[in-house]
Amino acid sequence: MAESLPPTRSRIPGSGLAKGLAVTLRTMTRKSVTQQYPDAQPELPPRTRGVIGLFEENCTVCMLCARECPDWCIYIDSHKETVPPAAPGGRERSRNVLDRFAIDFSLCMYCGICIEVCPFDALFWSPEFEYAETDIRDLTHERDKLREWMWTVPAPPALDPAAEEPKEIAAARKTAEKLAAAQADPGEDQS
Asked: What are the angstrom distances between the C-alpha of 26 and each of 14, 17, 29, 31?
């Protein structure tokens, strides 16, 4: 048995060319919008990934960011320091002190893994993107430069006003209201 082929539509010669030219003409008639970059700074979206800023006060030198970096572009040096006891009769403690924190942006692939794994919120995305260098060796930025970029990090978005109040804040507010009511009416029996 011979299999029947579906009926073929007759194509008009040059119809594909006409469709392509129509798209071209539509695009040519639209007004182009070009921002002159150095003169007009672009409006960046809130979650722009520019460079990584370091909030040095939160860094505990746990090295998680350097260990998890797939490119091994984070360099951290530290030393241990002994801290005297907090109370008399206590024992001395040791803590890590950050000596060097550097990121080689010529190797970095901007994946954000270091920011995600940091348990102490010491690393943040900064929207800064103008850090080009003429020599690739100058793209390794030390902690002072990373700290400068920290101050360009935008504030986190506001909380949703319709969200439920956190349990801790609700408990603290209820306790404060009870104390205020007790102080306002001291003659009432408190049981």
From this structure: 19, 14, 5, 10
